[in-house]
Write a structure and sequence with these properties.
The complex is a heterotrimer of chains A (228), B (252) and C (221). With 228 residues, chain A is mostly helical. Chain A contains eight helices and no strands. With 252 residues, chain B is an alpha/beta fold. Classes of the chains: A mainly alpha (228), B alpha/beta (252), C mainly alpha (221). Bound molecules: adenosine-5'-triphosphate and magnesium ion (MG).
Chain lengths: 228, 252, 221
């Protein structure tokens, strides 16, 4: 069989399980990313506008996450937490690990984006009588989120790739399933080519859509100096 | 203090670290009066305005506004700011909002007006500063400096403030755009609004001010009618300063 | 054994029998990535249309592929076309390739930043485009890239833990081995986390120091 025929063979034989695995990869990625936004946004607000002890605590959390590999974090959650009675299945452990990891990075992206909003915007908002909270929600967040889009896109693509760490705790996502198929058929290069194309295509599509989104929500004059 | 006094400032001091910026300011402003403050750069004019709407907290002294002392800790800062409009040197329009949304934000979020009502008021305010319909949905960056500043003025007056503060509203503008903003400000003064204007535009002071205050080194050095302070200053420092800006602005 | 002792022994074992591999893999991958990054960026900046298109495609591929997958391709896949590499070499090449894509981006953005300010000046004194790049733009851009490159090293170091997937006994693998032997994951994982933290934290201090130095030298924005 030639390379192309082998690819066709793999797709026709294992297409369904590959497809399911890819869906699982997308699921892990999107849940992880959403968790990351839901946690990262409040973390960044607490880190910038919160009281001092909270600031310190959140800064420590961010350093802790950014200073260690994601896989160590996953193993902690999956293998060490049962020690204190928290037993999670592999899928849940994976999305929690990815979500907690992403929250730290996203908090930093949001923090930098909020920092890029000029101080004068604050003063203008306060001067018409808006509260601090109202200023954050009506002025700082709408501007900051737009500024953060490129960084968040990179984060999403990063998570797409690193959702594959779920392989290490035997979640049947794309890398796991292709490894199994590779071992079964010995068509390693062929199966990995298929999965690599999947990841790269999704990354390209995400990049393109993010560009579109960025253009759609872009506002004349709202540009940042320097990338974050 | 009489009840016709809208603003009453007594022995106001402000330090930035060791830097003594306001050194005992005393100033009273009557309802309907427009006061122009002139003075050299770094003398503390902006700091004074910022103290009045509590963007900056003074270290000593009292400010009474609308029959209420606002320099005590107990005051609701937002209610005070709502009653005081502030126009910035660099406009400071909200970059993510269109012209009309800039005016509406405070009406909706501070005054809790329904959207429709807010829009009506905003339209009126914009028209009153000469911003016509085709500009309402433009973002700040799509407007000229003069247009931006007029939108900023509309944003301030739409809140129906009792006092308007202007901090060098024309000094960031190209010369040909200054006139349109000054005209709006003159109109506001003639309507009988209470306003304090920091500016170097002597022509405006002569035309529209009820009183001119010369400010230097954190204190009021001289005050009086525009003619008196500008054309016939008593103190040497005011004379020198006015001479230099007259040179700069090539006035008679 | 009490838990402090357990932590310390785990630390010692990981440092003695794992960390050196982590550092070896990361360092060699980093320099492989640097060489690739420089080549990529040279081609992008100075090469022809087709060459830079090819480089761009490579960068898109390398930035889109999960590191574990690339390690599998190299370690399990390449033998079938006659290239057999041991696991350490596979890890170095895999991580180095990916890092090459990222390092080329770091280098490119600083080249663009410097070129925006200095290109006209360089051309105006009569330099050719080539010598403007080689004698004015690149030397400055390299300096400007330093913080990003050091940061990239910490990323590779963390990624080197993924070499566990192809059996490289680096720090993380060693920690897992200890955990499996002791039936206890908490202390070995804590030990290896502390090691990564210590290295990443030190390197982030280095990054801050370089930023400071660069600002003094007038490279800051
Ligand atoms: N936030 C601040 N922190 C420290 N010092 C400040 C701050 N704001 C103002 N100052 C200092 O206080 C002094 C008065 O500043 P202020 O802006 O009130 O002067 P000004 O009269 O408005 O001058 P200009 O004509 O330049 O606007 C200046 O020396 C300034 O450097
Ligand atoms: Mg000022």
């Amino acid at each position: 069989m030639g390379f192309a025929e082998e690819i066709v063979y793999l797709v026709s034989t294992y297409g369904v399980s590959l497809f399911n695995a890819m869906l699982l990869t997308l699921e892990i990625t999107s849940i992880g990313f959403t968790l990351g936004v839901l946690l990262g946004l409040p973390i960044s607000l607490g880190r910038v506008y919160g009281p001092l002890p909270l600031k310190a605590l959140l800064a420590a959390y961010i350093e802790l996450i950014r200073g260690t590999p994601m896989i160590v974090q996953l193993f902690f959650i999956y293998y060490a937490l049962p020690l204190v009675g928290i037993k999670l299945d592999a899928f849940t452990a994976s999305i929690i690990a990815i979500g907690l990891n992403s929250a730290a990075y996203q908090a930093e992206y949001f923090r930098m984006a909020f920092g890029a909003v000029p101080r004068e915007q604050w003063e203008a908002a306060l001067s018409i009588g808006l509260s601090k909270w109202s200023t954050i929600t009506n002025v700082i967040i709408p501007q900051g989120v737009r500024i953060a889009i490129p960084a968040l896109t990179n984060e999403l693509i990063y998570l797409l790739k690193y959702s594959s760490i779920a392989y290490f705790v035997t979640v049947p996502e794309t890398v796991y399933v292709s490894k199994v198929i590779g071992a079964k058929t010995l068509l390693h290069i062929q199966i990995y080519t298929i999965t690599a194309v999947f990841y790269i295509l999704v990354a390209v599509v995400l990049t393109k859509s993010a560009k579109k989104l960025e253009e759609r929500v872009s506002i004349p004059g709202l540009v940042v100096k320097g990338r974050i | 203090m009489g009840s016709d006094k809208l603003l009453f400032i007594e022995d106001l001091h402000k330090y930035y670290g060791k830097h003594h910026v306001l050194k005992g300011v005393n100033l009273a402003v009557n309802e309907g009066e427009s006061v122009v403050i002139i003075g050299p750069s770094g003398s503390g004019k902006s700091t004074l305005l910022r103290c009045i709407n509590l963007l900056v907290k003074p270290d000593k002294g009292r400010i009474v506004f609308d029959n209420e002392e606002i320099t005590t800790g107990k005051i609701d800062v937002r209610r005070v700011r709502e009653k005081i409009g502030f126009v910035f040197q660099h406009f400071n329009l909200f970059l993510h909002l269109t012209a009309i949304e800039n005016v509406m934000l405070g009406l909706i979020k501070v005054k809790n007006y329904p959207r429709e009502k807010a829009r009506r008021i905003a339209e009126e305010a914009l028209l009153s500063v000469g911003i016509t319909e085709e500009l309402w949905n433009k973002y700040p960056a799509q407007l000229s400096g003069g247009q931006q500043q007029r939108v900023a003025i509309a944003r301030a007056i739409a809140m129906e403030p009792k006092l308007l503060l202007f901090d060098e509203p024309t000094s960031a503008l190209d010369p040909e755009l200054i006139g349109e903003v000054l005209k709006v400000m003159e109109k506001l003064a003639n309507e009988g609004r209470t306003m304090i204007v920091v500016t170097h535009e002597i022509g405006f002071a002569l035309k529209a001010a009820d009183r001119v205050v010369f400010f230097d080194d954190g204190k009021i050095i001289e005050e009086g009618s525009p003619e008196q302070v500008i054309l016939n200053p008593k103190t040497e420092r005011a004379r020198r300063f006015l001479f230099s800006i007259r040179e700069l602005y090539r006035l008679e | 054994m009490n838990s402090i002792e357990q932590l310390l022994t785990a630390l010692i074992i990981i440092v003695r029998y794992g960390l050196s591999n982590s550092i070896l893999v990361s360092t060699l991958a980093f320099f492989l990535g640097l060489i690739l990054g420089l080549i990529f960026v040279f081609i992008e900046v100075l090469g022809g249309r087709l060459a830079s298109w090819t480089v761009n495609l490579l960068v898109v591929i390398l930035r889109g592929i999960p590191p574990v997958l690339l390690l599998f391709i190299i370690f399990y896949g390449l033998p079938s076309i006659g290239i057999s590499l041991n696991n350490v070499v596979s890890a170095i090449i895999g991580l180095g390739l990916i890092s090459g894509a990222y390092q080329s981006q770091i280098l490119r953005s600083s080249i663009q930043a410097v070129a925006a300010r200095q290109m006209e000046a360089a051309l105006s004194i009569g330099l050719s485009k080539w010598s403007a790049y080689t004698s004015v733009i690149f030397p400055q851009a390299l300096r400007l890239s330093l913080p990003g490159l050091v940061n990239e090293y910490t990323i590779i170091l963390k990624d080197s833990s993924l070499a566990y997937a192809i059996g490289v006994v680096e720090a993380f693998t060693q920690a897992v081995h200890i955990a499996q032997a002791r039936f206890e994951y908490f202390t070995p994982l804590l030990a290896v986390a502390l090691l990564y933290l210590a290295i990443c934290f030190s390197l982030s201090q280095v990054v801050n120091y370089i930023y400071l130095k660069l600002r003094v030298l007038g490279y800051g924005q």
